[in-house]
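Table S2 (continued). Query chain:
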Amino acid sequence: MKYLTLKQAIEFHEQIIATSGGLGGYNEIQLGYLDSALKQIQNDDYYSDFIEKLTHLIHSCIKFHPFLDGNKRTSIQLGRAFIEMNFPGADIDDYYLNMEDMVVGVAEGKIAKESLYKKLQEMVEVRIKGIKIIKKDGSIEELDLEKLNQIIVEILTNKNKDKK
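Corresponding output:
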């Protein structure tokens, strides 16, 4: 699995502020919390599936409020980038529209982290069902969310074995 860095998060935020306006800059302490969240999602003991990682990333950017302005917009972009880097070609064209109300709800305390997880799971599952893989024997297999999670677990398990 591929992960975003704090540097990328800051760059996304700067692009968003330059494009859509707002106050640039960040709170050093709060930015440290976002950095911690970016590192925490790499630990499969804490966040074992992709949607848990995605949820924590988006939720953390909203709730920790690392930037002086544009935290909700940045959280949406971080989520989209995380999906795209791990599932290139995923159909997420209406991602922004679906996320706008959700991030506002999270910011206002109307949508809990668990509810965000469920909504993201529904939204992402619909989009990644269309992902197909070409197997070593040349055959094509369409993935559902369960199969995709199995593949991710296998990859991460093998990666952890290689480290030992």
